[in-house]
Amino acid sequence: MARENELMQKLEAFISKYYKNLLLKGVIYFITSSLLFFLFVSFAEHFGNFGTTIRTILFWGFISPTLFVLWKWIVIPLKGLYRIGETLSQEESAKIIGTHFTEVEDKLLNLLQLSSLSNSENELINASIEQKSKQLSPIPFLKAIDFSENKQYLKYVLVPVSVLLLLFFSGNKSIVTESSARIISYNTHFEPKAPFFFVLVNNHLQGVKGEDFLLKMHFEGEEIPADAFVVVEGNKHRLKKKGGQFNHLLKNPQEDLVFQFWANGFYSESMTLKIVPKPIIKSFNAQIDYPSYTKLKSEQILNKGNLRVPEGSEIQWSFETEHAENLFFQFDKKEKAHTISAELFEIRKTVYQSINYGLFVSSKALDGDSIFYQLEVIPDAFPSIKLTEIIDSNNTHLRFFEGVIQDDYGFSSLTFNFRTLGEESNDWFIEELAINKNNQQGFYHHWNLSSVGLKTGESLEYFFEVWDNDAINGNKSSRSKIMVHKSPTKEEHEQQVEENNESLKTKVEDALNLAEEVQKEMEELERHLLEEKELSWEDKQKAKSLLQNQKKLQERVAEIQQQQRQNQQEENRFEQPNEELLKKQELLQELFENIMTEEMKEMMDELQKMMDELNKERLQEMLEDMQQNDESLEKELDRSLELFKQLELQQKLENTIQKLDELTQKQKKLSEETQQKDTNKEDLKEQQEAIQEEFEKIQEELKKAEELNQDLEKKQELPNMKPEEEQIQEEMKKSLEHLEMNMKKKSSQSQKNAAQKMEEMSQKLQSSMQQSKSDSVSEDMATLRQILENLITLSLDQEMLLANITETNINSPQYTQYMQLQKKLQNDAQIIEDSLFALSKRQPQIHAMVNREISALNSGMEKSLILMEERFSNKASERQQFAMTSANNLALMLFEALEQMQKMADRAGDKMCNKPKNIGEGSVSKMRQRQQQLLDKIKGMMKDGKGENGKKKQGKQSKELSKMAAEQEMIRKRMQEIREELSGDQKAKKTIDKMLKQMEETETDIINRNITQQTLLRQQEILNKLLEAEKAHREREQDKQRESQEWLQDITNRLINPFEEYQKEKEKQEELLRTIPPSLTPFYKNKVNEYFQNDGR
Questions:
Q1: 3 state SS of 872
Q2: How many CA atoms lie within 13 A of 472 on its CB side?
Q3: What class, spelled out in words, does domain 194-276 have in CATH?
Q4: pTM for the full model?
Q5: How far is residue 915's CA from residue 491's CA, in Å, rounded to a whole number?
Q6: Of 464, 744, 802, 961, which cross-links 480 as Cys (Cβ 3.0–4.6 Å)?
Q7: pLDDT over 90 at 1024, yes or no
């Protein structure tokens, strides 16, 4: 039974393979037949170009056999394979197998038949089946079907396939493609095929609504038409030919357009131009919010894409569109804008850099035009600063700064920064300056370099720095250029001072030469004027030339004054001189400042104004005044130059002494170091060599001092320093030699000897300077006293001559004698002038007015003599009166100068004695005695006044009152000096203050002629207080008083005696008292003048 089942399975497998074989053969038949039918109908249509009827027959003639073959050879085998419907039976299969296998024949058929009878004849049939199954089991039924037999049919397939391939590769595929297409569309009427092809150049037939569309076409084929047309909505339009291409512009299309081309009677296929609306941006606006620190108000800009905004601005764009579904914004990258509504989009950006941004709108069918705009971002600019530095011409330490700062949005701060640079750089000092909220503003600043305390050799860096208010990137700053002020080294400073001094001396000498030239021009012009009756054009030109030279001289003097101020400032820049030098500098500076008087300047201005209307007489008068002024100017220049040279020498010597003292200390210190065992020999040698070099520089300074001394008119006696210099050099040389031999002890001793010699050398210089000063002051004071006595004698003689001339007839012989006497007085005055000028060149205390007054005195006497010779007695008397006035004024000024010289001598004496100055008992005692004498005089005048009457009494009282007022003023001034010299004794000062007040009250009573019993009581009280002060001082400092009493008494007498002598001489004439009021304060002077104007009433 198993063999039977196996045999049945094999039979079923045979049936499946049978149908598969049929299917394979059917596929080959179907392909071959279909391709042959396809080629047949295609070629038929291609060559026949049939109408719809024949194409219908051909279509169905192709479809029908193709379907039959498909059914016969494809569908039926598939049904059999899947046992659908009626299929091959087992018996038919057995016959096929029996036919194929000879050994089978009908055995398999019999087996199938027996199997169908097995139910009735069970045993016998089964046995027979078993036997046959056993016989048929080894036979391979499947081999009855051979798939390879189908290969023989493939050659039929190759024929149509080769034809198709040949057509396609030869470029004739249209034979089958076009003809088959026409067959498929058998109901469609096709025109006869043109011998050319319409080729559409446009890739896409899609246009934009309202925008012109350019339709482009060209021909392909053997016969190319010369013209072509396009048919749009029934209207035929000629195409424009351009090269091998035909174009037509479809203008402003609003909807879809159907068109086809036509040429030489042939139409192309119909085509459709699809029209779509274009997405556009109708409007947009930009809302700009500026950074808050810019203080700019937010603004909205409509339909303007190119923007210019500050850095950090926030911009919100809003776009209103049409036919747009999307809007893209391309900034640093392309991004989609936010959709607010159907056609409203929005995007927000904070901008920090300039960029070109783009806008893109699109719909599903079309992309709109892209728009690009420029966004210019303005970065916060750095602030700017412009600065002008002005150095004060009078004080080079003063710096004035004027500047302008500017920024786009404002400032946070403005600072002035400076630091000193020495061996190490110090920290910056920062000074914040006031600013306002304006974007552009000016600023001013002044700075005194002296406040920094710059030392020699140090430098100073300074600059201004302005900070803006940039809140985006942080505050930015800009600086002015860094300015550097380099302080000279000590050597450079000394060199600069020397150069400045030489420059000043040169300028003074040039000014002196120019002044001499001006004097010569004046004299020449005066002589020329005397020879002419009227002023000529040539005279006016000479006057103009003279005026120009005078102006030039005035400018030279101004330059000298300016340079003197600068020189003095530079000289005292790093080190304040001692009190004596400082006082001399001040006096010399005052002298330079007063060289050119205001009277001279006014005269120059007046001459300039009157130049066009000048006449001979006026010019002569002005020349006379100018000549006198220029002589004074020339003298003052000469005097200033000489005094400057003296001061320069003194400063040189004192600086040299200071350097010598400093070097002495260095040498002593090195001597101590040399004694130490652990010191390095080479270091010691290097230090000693440096000291030796410094000493050589000091020797050079001494040589320069000698040269300066030789340049003086009155040379000082400088000590000979050669022996000391040689000894010091020798000791230094020994020190180095001992160091070389490592003999430190001997080297140290040589260094100590050198230091000792330098110390002696310094003391020798100091002693010589002090002695020279003392001798010079004593000599000059004696000279001044003699000049003062001669001047008083001259004044009295001139006064006597004046009285005699007024009573003498001009034609009498005695008048001629008086003229000779006037000539002698003039010569005496000239001698006084020469002596006084020589003295003034040594003593700066003598004011410039002294020389001007003596010149005026001489001028007055000279003019008086000329007028006397011309017998103009009255005018001569006026000139003599002026001369007397000058003499009296001059006497007072010389007395003040003598007092100043005495004070300086006192200070010099203090320094020489090296002791503090004390108030001598003799000074207080003397003042008490003089106060007693004044009281006696007041009492005597009150007693005499009761017994005298008339003008004689009044005249005598006027004389006495003037004398007493001057005496009381002198006592008060001396007591004021004594008070200033007190130190720490407040009780004594208060006592003197009360006395001074009482003395002023007494002066007022005397001037106002209000002497009463109360005045006498006040005077007695003053005497009592003077006595108490004298006793208290004697008890407090009896020993010191004894030592200094004699010296102070001598100084007091020197101050008082000349004035006493002067007063005694003045008592001779009442007129002299009228012309020379006592040297009182302005208040007292006014009172005295009122007294004399009222004739003593």
A1: coil
A2: 21
A3: mainly beta
A4: 0.49
A5: 35
A6: 464
A7: no
